[in-house]
Structure formats: C-alpha cells, structure tokens
Amino acid sequence: MQNTSSGLAPLVRQLLNRSKLTEEDQAAILAMPHQVKQIPALNYIAREGDRPTHSCALISGFAVRHKTVGAGGRQIVNIHMAGDMVDLQNSLLACADHSVQALTKVEVALIPRQAIEEIAFERPAVGKALWVDTLAEGSIAREWVANVGRRDAKTRVAHLLCEFAMRLEAAGLGQQCNYELPMTQEQIADTVGLTSVHVNRTLRALDTEGYTKRSKRSVVINDWKRLAEVGDFNPLYLHFA
Amino acid sequence: MQNTSSGLAPLVRQLLNRSKLTEEDQAAILAMPHQVKQIPALNYIAREGDRPTHSCALISGFAVRHKTVGAGGRQIVNIHMAGDMVDLQNSLLACADHSVQALTKVEVALIPRQAIEEIAFERPAVGKALWVDTLAEGSIAREWVANVGRRDAKTRVAHLLCEFAMRLEAAGLGQQCNYELPMTQEQIADTVGLTSVHVNRTLRALDTEGYTKRSKRSVVINDWKRLAEVGDFNPLYLHFA
DNA sequence: CGTGTTTTTGACTTCAGTCAATTAAAGTGG
DNA sequence: CCACTTTAATTGACTGAAGTCAAAAACACG
Prior knowledge:
The structure is a homodimer.
Chain A: H1 9-16, H2 23-30, E1 35-39, E2 44-46, E3 54-60, E4 63-68, E5 74-80, H3 88-92, E6 99-102, E7 106-112, H4 113-122, H5 124-150, H6 153-170, E8 178-180, H7 185-192, H8 196-208, E9 212-215, E10 218-221, H9 224-230
Antiparallel strand pairs in A: 1-7, 2-6, 3-7, 4-5, 4-6, 8-10, 9-10
Helix pairs in contact in A: 4-5, 6-8, 6-9, 7-8
The structure holds a DNA duplex.
C-alpha cells in the first residue's frame, strides 16, 4: 500500500493538527490494516447497543453521533468530518451507547480494534496522539454541554457555525468564512437543542443582522470576529496545537 | 510507600470499575510519585488558562469542572469524586479550557505529567485503563449534552440524581438509594442548565410525587426503578464493566 | 444570638415550543 | 423536459415551560 494512497491519509492529517508525529510514525498509521467501505447518506455506521469489532476513521463525507431520549427526541452529540476517528469510544469500550449516522455519502476505513491497540502501545507517539484526540473530543463535548446548557438560541447557533468553520478549515475541507454546511435545519436543531422552527428563525436573524449570508446550505461569514462574539466562541477548546 | 496507604488507592479502585489490572500493575500505580495536597471547599484546583505541570487524582471530597459563558452564566461540565483523575484533560493538552473547583474540602494527589505518560506506555494495561477512563468521561459528557439539550426539567434533575447515586456507589462512597448530595441547589442548577429557583421547584416536585425523600442534602430514593424511569436513566453510558 | 447562606414561595415575564399552513427545492419517472 | 412527490425552509398565531424579581423562611456557624 502506498502511503499517499492509503485511505488513512486524512486521519494522519487530522492527528497532525494536535500532535507531532515522525515520518515513521505517520507511515505506520497509513500502513494499518483497514478496509474501505462506502455508506450512503442517512445510513447507520454503528448503532446503539452494538459491540463493534472495528474502529472506524472517516475518509470523506460527514457523520454525526446521536442519542435518543425517552421523550422521543434525539440529540446529536458529535459532528464528524474527514480524518476523524468516529468511534474509538465504541472500540475500546464494550458497548456503544449511541448511534453513528452518515449525514452525507461517506467513506470509512474500518480498522480492527486489535490494530489500534497495537500501534498505540508499540509507538507511544501514535498512542499519545490518539489519546490527545480522545481528550480533545471530550473537550468539545464539554463545550457543547455549556452551549446547550447556558447559551440562548442566537448564541448557540452562532457558536455552532463558528466551530464548524474552524474544524472544516483545520481538516482542509473548506474556508473558515465560506463553506457548505451539510445539515438540514432539523439536524442543526438536534445539535443545539432547539426546534427546527426556532433554528430557522435564528439563522434568519443572523442573516438579517448581517453576521452571515446564506443560500441553500452555503454559509458565508461576513465578519468572523463579530460572529465569534455573538457566538461566545473561543477556539481554545478545540485544542488545535 | 506502602501500598494500602498510598494516596492513590482510590484511583486504583476506580480504574478497576472499568478495567482489569494485575496486582503488579496496581502496585505500579500506587507507587507513582505524587504529592498530597489539601484544598478547602470552594477553592480552585486549576483555572482556565493554566498550563499545568501535574495531573491530579481526587483522594477524597468532591470537585466540579466548570466553564464560564459570555452572558455571565456558568456551566458545570463534570462532577468528580474520590478516585477520579480530575484533569488528564488538562495534563496532556497544553492549556486548560475550564476551571476545576473543590465542592467540599478535598484531598488531591498531584502526579507529575511525565509519570503518567511513562506508566501509560510502559504498562499497556495501565495505559489502556487510563484511556478507557478518558473515553468514559467523554461518554458521560455526551450524555450530559443530551440531558441538557433534550430533556425537560424534571427528567434532567432526576437523571442527575440517578447518575450521582450510581457513581457514588461504584466509588464505594455511599448507597445508591440513600446518599448525601454535596451540592447546593444553585450548583445543581449550573449542572443541569436551569435556574436555582426552578431546580428548587423540581426537586420539590420529585419529593411530592414520591420519587425521593430529601432533608438538607440527603437524598433517599424511594423506588430506584421509578426514578430511573422519569429520569430517562440508562446506566450504559457510565461504562462500568 | 446574629449574620450570611440556602431554600422556598409567589407574581409576573419571556424565550422557545407547538401547531398549522405555505412556499421553495430536489428528486423521480414517464 | 415536464407533471408529480417528497423533503426542506419559512412564516404566523398561540401556548407553555422555565426564567426573573423579590421577599420570606429555614439553616448553618462563629
């Protein structure tokens, strides 16, 4: 398998956003055994209750992790893009406590659990990079707790737009101030803990007040600083080196 | 340092809730260099923006991690009890994105960052246990996103009471259906994303409707199953083995 | 005891949800 | 390429859960 053609190249790219890795370490990651799989939009990559045997890295497309609550609602608890490990969570822990769903058509690399554990402990730098990614993911989840717990609708939505912008750019998938948001307003609602109707009104307000310019799914951020301000957005929690 | 008297005994106990560790591995954890420190209630163990040089395991008492949002509110994003690693997060990542505050008088063990990294890679079982704990913590954060994002007040509060009950019992610090909740109603409010007034009304309602019996800070759960039901509580996400 | 939290309660407000209908966009098959 | 469906976005009128403000009661503690 040639390095640059490995399906795991996006994973390496993302890990480098938070950790240093030698050429050798990078090559070792690229050389991990894996199987590429296509998944159509809205299909499930994993389901709550699964006991997965493989870890899964996103090669292209977008996916979310979500939970279903008793009252029938759903809450999106993570958004994933190319290069993200989608379920280290599901791999080291015995049982999935949430589902992973493709938002768009998606390509994933399935990596045997064993291979992840081996590389993590044979190559400490790689192990540490994966661990750091796990921590960063936890950090993002905590920021989301604060976002849905203590911010009003406008701030919440603006915050999401900012986070997505920065992560996209870090993943090399778009520009921070001009990108495609691959989500319906209903999916945004399930992410920020609002209803789709209110998300609609809020997005509209952000447009009207000149923070953004949207058409279809495309988002143009007119003034990053101003949007970051209404969104109470401080990128520290993303832990990009 | 004798094993049973090591300040790190609670840490080992907690790790065993999610991972298997040989006697040898356990001894190695207990033997990590560390310094015990007392911290009075409400003091800070770490502050947002710190660049910590030590990791910190809780030996006794309770602590929270919280974030401050622009509008002046605060959101508690984690609750910690004896045996929890309070800031692996802060230790492997460069910069703390939240503060850690003692809820009660607290004893912590400060462990040099280096020592954590060494043991993690010299003893894969220990490294994996720490990693699993990191993942479990992320899992709890995700459940909190769902709790705050998609559940109503009564459900949220009941869920918190259930989570606390289970974690206390797992940590060997109390009984699942009869424990002391070391938080004011205002702190509960900052945890579940409500106001203290509404938390008061909600706790009262749970009492009136017979789910719980409270006096001061003590909580008695009359019927676990019923409370878990209104709280939409499924302990899977805690990932106790 | 007195002072300062914490808990409780009541009256009123508001932000976001609900319900329902309309418009716009994106597919689909002939 | 056009009628036909389906999904997504938008808008308006009304509701309701939780927030705000303010004051009283109950504790906790030096």
